[in-house]
Specification:
By secondary structure, the chain is α+β, with helices and mostly antiparallel strands. Helices cover about 25% and strands about 25% of the residues. It has helices at about 1-50, 75-85; strands at about 55-60, 60-65, 95-100, 110-115, 125-130, 145, 160-165, 170-175, 185-190, 205-215. Strand 1 (about 55-60) and strand 2 form a beta hairpin. The protein is elongated. The termini are far apart.
Length: about 220
């Protein structure tokens, strides 16, 4: 009996040692999977919307003077890669984005906005709705933006663009979806303000006024 008990103790010790090793391996695999999941989730969050760093705020608009720079940070380069866009170089122009109206409220596709005023001096500019996503095959073709050469202006050179879900007279820019956040992108080409974005005057940029929302 003693010999059997003696042989049983090493077996039990080996079983406990194997269990400890298995537990350690399991914890290691769990930690590795958790770290990979958190890393992928944080990278997805950081590159899903706009650029996370380097913005210069001017009213409702945020200028991104370094978006196309050679020394842009890794997150900015990742956003460009995810969008599949070629950003404006430092000497080519300036990108500005807006996701809030002039009162600081987040823009929503269920509301109507008037984008009115002027733009800083530039050889040309475009104003588009950013982040529209792929267009469904059965969806009608709608305008996605305006250029400085086709915009209808008032007598004093100012313009008003109606950003709305329903058809509007004049310069109408359709909403990209029925509801949800909206972001505008204003690109200034060959503009002198690209070299001094930090001193950009908010009065030189269009206002974004909310004129109504669906009840």
């Amino acid at each position: 009996m003693a010999s059997i008990a003696g042989r049983g103790r090493p077996l039990a010790e080996r079983a406990r040692s194997l269990l400890r090793r298995t537990s350690n391996v399991g914890l290691f695999v769990y930690a590795l999977a958790l770290g990979a999941g958190l890393g992928l989730a944080s990278a997805d969050y950081a590159t899903r919307g706009g650029y996370p760093f380097g913005g210069v705020v001017a009213g409702s608009w945020t200028a991104w003077p370094r978006a196309g720079a050679v020394g842009a940070d890794p997150y900015t380069r990742a956003v460009n890669s995810r969008r599949g866009e070629i950003p404006l170089g430092v000497g080519e122009g300036l990108l500005l984005t807006a996701s809030q109206d002039s009162d600081g409220r987040a823009m929503d596709a269920g509301c109507t906005y008037a984008v009115a005023g002027t733009t800083p001096p530039a050889r040309a500019w475009t104003l588009t709705v950013a982040g529209r996503g792929p267009r469904p095959a059965d969806a009608p073709l709608l305008r996605e933006g305006f250029t400085s050469t086709e915009i209808l202006r008032e007598a004093d050179g100012h313009f008003v663009i109606a950003l709305a879900p329903e058809v509007q007279p004049g310069n109408w820019l359709p909403m990209p979806r029925a509801s949800g956040p909206v972001r505008l992108a204003l690109r200034l080409y060959d503009t002198p303000v690209a070299a001094s974005a930090g001193t950009l005057d908010r009065s030189a940029l269009p206002e974004i006024r909310r004129t109504g929302c669906r009840s």
